[in-house]
């Protein structure tokens, strides 16, 4: 019985020695008991940059072109809707005046004209919704094109720069201005866009 107790004591001693060695010479060895120095070293190795995406997109040449095209379409749609709305309002005024002075031969004829104007007003309302939907869709397509262009270029840019992260500045609360690459990326993106436009 004593032999078994002696073996158990030796095994316990060995186990404590192994735990001691693992604790002081393991992954945290030379870096403090909590591994704080190791974490600091890892953080220093991470390369982070940020861009002010809203400012970049606002000043991107492609953005200006898309904005001008959108404005032209918006003006054309507004003009189309406005002319049809004005024509309807003239007809509605004329109908009201004719009705007041008894200009319709029969009540049936007045009802027909009223129904025609109601249908025309509904068509104009549908046109308004249709044109607004087209403009909203065009705006969404333009926004997506700009975002795709930015992301695509950042991947090309980062192939050389090797940043671990490129963040949007709207998500950065505090950061050094040296990590702000907005101006550089904007200049390069505009140069690339102008070069593409210059090709025949």
Helices and strands in order, then pairings?
Blueprint: H1 2-25, H2 36-45, E1 48-51, H3 53-59, H4 61-100, H5 107-161, E2 165-168, H6 182-198
Parallel strand pairs: 1-2
Task: Give a written overview of the molecule.
With 200 residues, the protein is mainly alpha-helical. It has 2 domains: 1-35; 44-198, 2-Layer Sandwich (Protein Binding, DinI Protein, Chain A). The protein has 6 helices and 2 strands, in the order ααβαααβα. It has helices at residues 2-25, 36-45, 53-59, 61-100, 107-161, 182-198; strands at residues 48-51, 165-168. A two-stranded parallel ribbon has the order 1-2. Helix 3 (53-59) packs parallel to helix 6 (182-198) and helix 4 (61-100) packs antiparallel against helix 5. The longest helix has 55 residues, at 107-161. The termini are far apart. 6% of the residues are buried.
Task: Provide tags for this entry.
single chain, 200 residues, mainly alpha, Protein Binding, DinI Protein, Chain A, two-stranded parallel sheet
Number of strands: 2
Please trace the helix and strand order, writing H or E for each element.
Answer: HHEHHHEH
User: What number of structural domains do the residues give?
Assistant: 2
Our estimate of the beta-strand percent is under 5%
Shape: rod-shaped
Structure at a glance:
The protein is mainly alpha-helical and 200 residues long.
């Amino acid at each position: 019985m004593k032999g078994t107790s002696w073996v158990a004591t030796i095994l316990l001693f060995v186990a404590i020695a192994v735990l001691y060695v693992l604790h002081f010479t393991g992954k945290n060895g030379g870096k403090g008991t909590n591994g704080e120095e190791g974490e600091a070293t890892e953080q220093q190795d991470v390369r982070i940059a940020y861009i002010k995406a809203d400012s970049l997109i606002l000043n991107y040449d492609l953005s200006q072109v898309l904005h001008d095209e959108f404005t032209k379409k918006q003006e054309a749609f507004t003009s189309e809707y406005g002319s049809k709305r004005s024509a309807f309002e003239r007809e509605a005024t004329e109908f009201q005046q004719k009705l007041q002075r008894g200009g319709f031969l029969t009540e049936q004829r007045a009802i027909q004209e009223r129904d025609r104007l109601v249908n025309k007003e509904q068509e104009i309302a549908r046109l308004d919704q249709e044109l607004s939907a087209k403009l909203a869709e065009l705006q969404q397509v333009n926004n997506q094109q700009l975002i795709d262009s930015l992301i695509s270029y950042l991947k090309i840019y980062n192939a050389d720069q090797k940043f671990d992260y490129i963040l949007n500045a709207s998500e950065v609360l505090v950061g050094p201005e040296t990590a702000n690459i907005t101006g550089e990326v904007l200049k390069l993106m505009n140069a690339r866009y102008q070069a593409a436009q210059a090709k025949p």
